[in-house]
């Protein structure tokens, strides 16, 4: 069998069919989330030429001293608490994925503890929220990427986690007190624990609820407070969020029909994150909406939400939130990935071709640089069986 080697070439000499193993710069400084590019189209060549003067291709010619490249970056782990040195999206993704996994397991454990009449481990909740805050500080998009992970079978746990991540990200984006964000995050992660006391037949009912059933659903905030008051270490601010996250500024919420400033600022943030995630998730009784559809509908709920916070939430996500699944005019499907600055057109990691077959390796396309490509439509999470977590595992560095 012929041995393959690495060969350095000028990007002007790139041809379709080549496989690029390395660049003239770290992969972390480029839009590519995978290390390695298969050159299949003229657009692939144009992208590489725009980024690099030279690249290293796979070749059957012997390797020379000039062809050798420096070692790459190693895989990351969750940094120590308080470590907030900025990192690239790819660098932070591994830590964010682990934080997400830990938090997901913690929520399951808390539900088990409550079901067995044991006190939930609030110290573990505090640590997970602090890890989330650190992750958002290191890179604002890595953790939010996982809020696109949905599970109808595990809805309450995943929803609680997503609401916490979205709320912490928004509060950090608009600039708020660290202690207050932590208290808010704890309340957000625990906001739906009271549902464990609501009969599953009501929670999982596919049809319209009766008035009596809806009245029972509306008790879950108070159930949650009663459960968590027995735990140690929770502040009144965190408990306010558990009790009031369904209240609305116009007084049309529950359980107390609070109005305006009677609802804390941080509860107002959680309320937005709560409704947004619920709307973009598949439920037994409805199909999840796209982010754009959800935000448009929320804006039509006159007086429900803090208008300025909802605007900031929309600005934070942009027209195409990171992790959103989209279909291009070519029929290709991919995820919106971060760019150094929010831009009018997104950069997309393409994972399916126009026949909805998996790309391997995946490719990155910056729609700002290639105007003939554009987003045809946004897709609900999980469409075509595409899952953000599957691809996150591939990208970890």
TrEMBL record:
Q: Which domain of life is it from?
A: Bacteria
- The HD domain covers 156-279
Cited Pfam families:
DUF3391, HD_5
Asked whether the UniProt record includes Hydrolase among its keywords, one would answer no
Signal peptide, first to last residue: none
| Matches recorded under PROSITE patterns | HD, HD_GYP
GO molecular function per UniProt: adenylate cyclase activity; phosphoric diester hydrolase activity
For whether the record's keyword set contains Lyase, the answer is: yes
- Output this protein's name: Adenylate cyclase protein
* InterPro entries with a match to the protein in the record: DUF3391, HD/PDEase_dom, HD_domain, HD_GYP_dom, HDIG_dom
Q: Domain named HD-GYP: which ranges?
A: 134-330
Native species: Salinisphaera shabanensis E1L3A
Tell me its EC number(s), please. Answer: 4.6.1.1
Q: Keywords on this record?
A: Lyase
